[in-house]
Amino acid sequence: MVKRCTQYLLVLSLLIAGSACARGLPELTDLIEQNSPAVVKINTVERNEVTRGGPPPQYQQDIPDIFRHLLEPRRRQQRPVASMGSGFIISSDGYIVTNNHVVDGADEVTVTLTDRREYEAKVIGTDLRSDLALIKIDAQDLPSIRWGDSEDLKVGEWVVAIGSPFGLDYSASAGIVSAMGRSIPNESRENYVPFIQTDVAINPGNSGGPLFNLKGEVVGINSQIYTRSGGSIGLSFAIPASLARDVVAQLMSKGRVDRGWLGVGIQDVDRNLAEAMGLGKPVGALVAQVEAGAPAAEAGIMAGDIITRFDGHKIETHGDLPHVVGQTRPGSEVSVELMRKGKSKRLRVTVGALPGQDDDEQQASVKPSTDVGGRLGLVVSEIPDALKQRWNVDSGVLVKQVVPGKAGAKAGLRSGDIIAQLGFDEVGDMKDYDRVVKDLPSDELLPIRFFRAGQPTFRTIQIED
C-alpha cells in the first residue's frame, strides 16, 4: 500500500510539474493565424544562356583563320533556373519585403498568397549589402504586417518564423533569440548588418520571411543559416527590423540605399593590445588604416586610435563600428570618442557617403525598369577617387544599377562592380564606355572584364537588341 501511494504521489508531482511547464510556454496559434495571410511565397525564374563551343577570348587570336569557323559558338539554349523564397506584405497596396538573394538575377518573380492567388511582381529596389529587396504586386486591400522594434529584443525571448521551407507553404516554427548583433561579413567582406541569431528552424525557402515577436510584430527578416547538412541545425540569422525599416523606406522612396562612411580599416582589440593602449579591458575598434581624404582623415582620426563610442553608441568590438556608421545619414556631424596613446579624446566627424552610394553620382539610379540603362541595362558613373584608392584601380566605370533581365544582369554584374573592358576594348572612363557600348555587336558573346571588391574577373556578355 505504501509503495502504491508513493507511486501515486510521484505521478501526481510529475503531472503538476508538467502543467507548470506548460503554463510557461507561449500560446502561438492566434499569432500564426492572424499573420499568415500577409506572408507570401516567392518563386523566381532566371534564364541562363548557354553557348556550346568557342575558345576562351584570350586564345582566339592564336587560331588560324581556316579553322576559326569550326570553333565559333554554334548553339544557344535557354536553361531556366528556378528558385524560391518567402516574403511579407508591408502595405495594403502590394509592397513586399524579401531578401535580395531571393530575387537577384531573376527574369520572372511570381508571388503566391495564402488564398492561392498569384501575381507577377516588379522589383522596386534591391540592396546587396543588407540582403534586402522591395518588390510590388498589382493588388489592393491586402493584409499587411506590423513592424516591431528589434532594439527591444533580448536573448532568451521567444520568436516565431513563418515561411515556405523547401516549398512547403506557410510553415511556422518557433524558438528563442540566441544572440544579438552577430557580425557576418558578406562575400565582398563588408559587414553592415548586426544579425539576430536564433535557434528557430529555418531552412532553404524561408529566406525573406518574417521573424515575429510574441506581439505579432516583425522584428527580423530571416536571411541565413549555418548548416553542414543543408537543413536547420539550430543556427539561423535574421536581419533586424530596425535596420530593415530604414533600408525599405529608402528603396521605396528612391530605389537605392545611402550609407554612412568613415574610410578606416579596423581590427579587434585583444587583451595585450588593450593593456598596451591603456584600456582596462579589450573593447572598441582599433584603427589600422585611414584612407587619405576620407571623413576620418578630415576629422583627425589616426592609425592606432581605438574608437570606443560613435554618435553615442558603445563600440564593444570592431564589428560594431560598421553597423553604426552604415546606419548614419551621410552628411551628419557626430561625436567620436577614442583612446590615443593611453588618453581619451573626443572628435567631431562629418560622415561621408559610402563610395558608390552618394546622391550626385546616382541621379540616374531610379526604380528599375526596362527603359533604364541603355543596351546593357546598366547605369554607370565615373569612379570616385576614394573608391579608386580603396580597390587600387585607376580606370573604368562604376556600376550603379543593374536592370533585371537585361544583358548586364544576365552576365552576373552587380552594383559596385567596376567595368574595365568590354569586348576587346579597354574602358577608361564614361566617354570610353559610351563609345564602346554603342559599337558592340548584338547576339554575340563578348568578353567583359570587371573588378569586384578589388578582384579582377572575366565573364561573357551578350546584347539582344
TrEMBL record:
Keyword Cell wall biogenesis/degradation attributed: no
GO cellular component, one term: periplasmic space
A GO BP annotation: proteolysis
Chief localisation class: periplasm
InterPro entries assigned: PDZ (IPR001478), PDZ_sf (IPR036034), Pept_S1C_Do (IPR011782), Peptidase_S1_PA (IPR009003), Peptidase_S1C (IPR001940)
Organism superkingdom: Bacteria
Active site positions: 101, 131, 207
Family named by the database record: Belongs to the peptidase S1C family.
Protein name: Probable periplasmic serine endoprotease DegP-like
